[in-house]
Specification:
Phosphorylase Kinase, domain 1, 11 strands, alpha+beta, Aminoglycoside 3'-phosphotransferase, Chain: A, domain 2, 2 domains, six-stranded antiparallel β-sheet
Length: about 375
C-alpha cells in the first residue's frame, strides 16, 4: 500500500482476525484478477503468524457464503483423502481462518472479508519456465482431482452462474460488441479487428464439448475452475508444488475444463498477459510433459471419451478466454482486474494467438495425446 490512509482502512479489516490490537504491517499481493489480497505480518515477529487477508469481489461472487462452504468441504476432503502416505503425493490448500468473532466471513461496508493461513517459503510464477515445472503443475492437478473426486456434487454450490458456459459467453460478446460498435470506431484498432475476425470465423469452437456434455460421456467431478500457473504455490528451494490457491471457482464440472485451462496456461511460456503478443505460442514439448505429469499417478479418473475430447477442450477454453477478455474490454473492464485500460484487449489478443498456435500444432497434439494418455488404460 502506498499511503497511511489506505493502511488505516486495512488495519480495521486485519484486526478483525486478531485477538488483540497488535502492531501490524500490510503488503498488497498483486497476483490474481478478481479479489483484493494482502499479506498481514506482525511488527514484532512472534506476536502472531502472518496471514492472508482478502476482500471477496461481491460483484462476481454474489453469495460469499457459498464460497466458504465449498472451501470447508475441500479442506475436509483433501485432509481425509490423501493418496497413500507418500510425501510425493502431498498437497494442501491454505487453511481458512476464523475471525475474533468466530466466523469465517466479516462484513464491512465495502464487502465481505476473510483470511487464510500464509504458507511460508513459497513462491508463485506467472509462467511455466521449464518442462519440469509443467510436469509438476500437471501432477499436482491430478492429485487435486484424486483427493476431491469423492465430494458429492450436490454438496458443492455454484459460485458463478454460467461459468465455463462458452455459448453463453458468446451471446454476451455479441451484445457487447454491438454496443461497442455503436459508440466507437473499431477500424482504428488492429488488435480489436483481428479478435473480432477470429471470433466470427471460429464460432463453432464454442460448441466443441456441447454434445459430449449433454450426452453425459465426460467425467464430471470437483474441479478447481481456474488452475492457471499462478495458482500453484512452489517451494522456493526445490520448486516442488506445495499448495493450490484461489479456489473460489471450485464447483462440480467436466474435469476437461480444468485440464484444458491448466494446459492453456502452462504451455504458453510467455504467459497470458505478455507485452509482446507476437511471441505467444503453444509449446508442444511442454504439452508432452504436462501429459506425462498428469498421468504419472498410479491410476487416472479419466475415461477414453475424456482422452478423445481433451485436445478439443484446449481449443474451447482458449477460445472462451479470448471471448471473455474482449467482452470485458467492451464493457469497460468491470470483471478482470487491470493495470491499464488496454490490458484485457492484450489478454484477448494473446489467447487469439495461442489458439492459432494450437491449430498449427494440431496433428502433433493429437498424436501425443493418444500416445501418452492411452497408455494409462
Amino acid at each position: 500500500m502506498n499511503n497511511i490512509k489506505d493502511k488505516d482502512y486495512l488495519y480495521e479489516k486485519a484486526h478483525a482476525f486478531l485477538t488483540s490490537k497488535q502492531e501490524i504491517d500490510i503488503i498488497e499481493i498483486k497476483t490474481g484478477f478478481i479479489n483484493n489480497t494482502y499479506l498481514v505480518t506482525p511488527f514484532k515477529e512472534k506476536d502472531f503468524a502472518p496471514f492472508v487477508l482478502q476482500r471477496i469481489n461481491s460483484t462476481i461472487f454474489t453469495e460469499p457464503e457459498n464460497i466458504i462452504s465449498n472451501y470447508l468441504l475441500l479442506e475436509k476432503s483433501i485432509f481425509s483423502q490423501r493418496i497413500g502416505q507418500s510425501r510425493e503425493h502431498f498437497l494442501k490448500i491454505p487453511k481458512l481462518l476464523k475471525s475474533s468473532s468466530n466466523s469465517f466471513l466479516v462484513t464491512f461496508p465495502d464487502g465481505k472479508w476473510r483470511s487464510f493461513e500464509y504458507i511460508d517459503s513459497t513462491i508463485t510464477y506467472e509462467v511455466a519456465s521449464s518442462k519440469l515445472i509443467t510436469f509438476k503443475i500437471a501432477r499436482t492437478l491430478a492429485i487435486f482431482h484424486q483427493l476431491t473426486n469423492k465430494i458429492k456434487s450436490e454438496y458443492l454450490s455454484k459460485t458463478i452462474h454460467n461459468f465455463h458456459n462458452t455459448p453463453y459467453y458468446l451471446r454476451e460478446y455479441d451484445q457487447e460488441l454491438e454496443n461497442y460498435i455503436s459508440i466507437n470506431n473499431i477500424n482504428k484498432s488492429f488488435q480489436i479487428n483481428n479478435i473480432i475476425d477470429f471470433i466470427e470465423n471460429n464460432r463453432e469452437e464454442a460448441l466443441l464439448l456441447t454434445k459430449p456434455i449433454d450426452n453425459n460421456i465426460l467425467l464430471e467431478t470437483t474441479i478447481h475452475g481456474d488452475p492457471k500457473v499462478s495458482n500453484f504455490l512452489f517451494n522456493n528451494i526445490n520448486q516442488d508444488v506445495v499448495a493450490l490457491i484461489d479456489l473460489d471457482t471450485c464447483n462440480p464440472g467436466p474435469v476437461l475444463f480444468d485440464l484444458a485451462d491448466c494446459i492453456r496456461s502452462s504451455c504458453n511460456p510467455i504467459g497470458e498477459d505478455p507485452l509482446d503478443n507476437e511471441n505467444v505460442l503453444f509449446n508442444i514439448d511442454f504439452y508432452e510433459y504436462f501429459l506425462l505429469g498428469y498421468f504419472s499417478l498410479p491410476k487416472t479418473l479419466l475415461s477414453k471419451s475424456d482422452i478423445f475430447y481433451l485436445p478439443y477442450s484446449i481449443r474451447l477454453i482458449t477460445f472462451e478466454l479470448s471471448v471473455r477478455f474482449i467482452t470485458d474490454y467492451f464493457k469497460g473492464n468491470i470483471y478482470f482486474d487491470i493495470k491499464d485500460e488496454n490490458q484485457n484487449l492484450r489478454r484477448a489478443f494473446a489467447q487469439y494467438k495461442l489458439h492459432a498456435s494450437i491449430m498449427s500444432n494440431w496433428d502433433e497434439i493429437i498424436i501425443l495425446t493418444n500416445k501418452i494418455c492411452k497408455s494409462s488404460f
